[in-house]
Specification:
Blueprint (H helix, E strand, L loop, with lengths): L1 H25 E14 L4 E12 L17 E7 L5 E7 L2 H5 L10 E12 L3 E8 L5 E9 L7 E2 L6 E6 L8 E8 L6 H15 L12 E7 L38 H7 L7 E6 L6 E4 L3 E5 L5 H14 L62 E4 L2 E7 L16 H15 L1
Parallel strand pairs: 2-8, 10-11, 10-12, 12-14
Antiparallel strand pairs: 1-2, 1-5, 3-4, 3-6, 6-7, 9-11, 13-14, 15-16
Helix pairs in contact: 3-5
Amino acid sequence: MIRLSLLFMLTLITLKMAAQQQYDTFFKDSTLRMDLILAGNDKSMQVYLHAYSKSEGWAGRRHNLSNQQNLGHGLAVMRDAATGEIIYSTVCSALFSEWQATDEAKEVQKAFQQVLLFPFPKKKAFITIEFRGYDGVYHTYLQAPVDPSDLLIRPKSEMTYKKEVIQKNGSSAQCVDIVYVAEGYTEGEQDKFFADARRLNADLFAHEPFDKLKNKFNVTAVAAVSSESGTSHPGKGVWKNTLLDAHYDTFYSSRYLMSNQMIAINDAIAGVPYEQIIVVVNTPVYGGGGIFNSHTMISADDKLSNIIVVHEFAHAFAGLADEYYYPGDVMENFYNKKIEPWEENITTLVDFDRKWKDMLPKDAAIPTKLTENSKLTLGVYEGGGYATLGIYRPMQDCRMNTNKAKTFCPVCQRALIRVVDYLTK
């Protein structure tokens, strides 16, 4: 037993060394930030390179460099220019993709900001940006060269905002780095922001499975300063001059609190290690949002903020889908029911084998009938992803469904654990 354990440890050390060697072959210990503009309407999309910038240090993974989990609407691949070899890939979703499903997108062309992070290459490379169509197939929208000696790659120095390390459990290579950033807090409200960030972080890590994974996360808070306190609420005729331009009524949904200023958000935390961004908005009104591998936004002082931050972070961190649905919802056809969604916690049954079928008893009914006895039973229940029919969720209730659920269902917990493992092991 001792020999087997020693062999396992030696194998693990060898794999980690090989991963580090591969990283060192292609990359510096720096970050390449790629600012993009996504533009179009409900039927078209264009992707434009806005700018590159560089900051010291790399907080992302140094292993699984060319492997990704096939999550998200978007895929960004960096290749070595000389050989064409894939040296890094990352996945994402975009606020623009959600907007395309709205009625407004049928009437007007709009542009949205997107920011992607890459390890900084030592040699010339090129980045390919792809997004899934409604058919689930990736389509290429941009291929952009990267020359590490390009004099127009702007260096980003650390901002001078006050900072607080909330928890530190290891190096960025060993842990996931979360940064909380202030929105709508004036210079005189920085202490309030740090207290809000600490409270919301405690709420997040009080939930399974985050409570058991806390030692896998580093957390920093950045007290970015706004000219005015609070946030914009267009539906109430309220407009505020804030650093990150967050506002309610995103896509004309009163509780959808988001910002299209991704460049400003990333500028505010320049120089701080981060993989996940949580924007804390200085408001007592219910609201928030989460975009996979982009950012989470949450109202600081609503009575349900302790729950909403967990739900929205699950969107941004693991790409979990909303499991709720309402008859006649405007998002009823957000998912193409002829293909399998990429999110791990919903299914159309088109390819259920790669979802949570392995977690069910062999004799489980698929789909599963809703009964009083099945309330706490893992199954395949119709209704989810905003659709009453044709999309199925794992349990009758879950943190991704209602605010009454006390925890994530087993399928969502497994998905969250998988992402942590992918980023840290």
